[in-house]
Design goal:
The protein has four helices and six strands, in the order ααβαββαβββ. It has helices spanning 2-12, 17-69, 98-102, 132-136; strands spanning 91-92, 112-113, 116-122, 146-153, 163-168, 175-177. The strands form two sheets. The protein has a four-stranded antiparallel sheet, covered by helices on one side. Strands 1-2 form a two-stranded antiparallel sheet. The N and C termini lie far apart (67 Å).
Length: 181
Amino acid sequence: MTAMRRGRHAAQAGFTIVELLFVCALVAVLATIALPSFFGESKKTKAMAEVQPMFSDMRQRMEQYIQEYGTYPANIGEATLFPAAPTNKLQSLGSQPSTWTAVNFRFTGPTEVYCGYTWSSGNANDGTNIGPEAAAFGFTAPNASWYYLLAHCNLDNDSTVDSFYFTSSVDPTILKRNEGH
């Protein structure tokens, strides 16, 4: 009798094919929901890990420049990025353009970056050098000499929507638009 009972329990142990298929389908649905969110957060984290030290270094050099020369460096504008084209692949910061070496930029953070960086500067109450990206962040010319820093990123390799990060001499907060793209 005991052997018979064991036989019945042995036959009932395990999962049926239907149960296994149901579990596999459930795992697939959860992965479909969770993975894009995970990769999106990963791109956001990657961008902020790069942008924060870059902006910190750039801000320090801009403030040193005004201390030495009494004005912020000449405007280079939003179209003059370094490195020239943001991409989802790392790019070397090796050889800086002359406009950057004139400001004596020395980066203490990463030597390879994903985003392109630039600055714009201007005189008190003069918004002539404010580009469209800064305007989209709501930046207007203050009543003192000013600058803003801009990072242009394309972490998803889709040029239809790119990420932009912004900070200025008026407010050191890093503002973000389309973060992670």
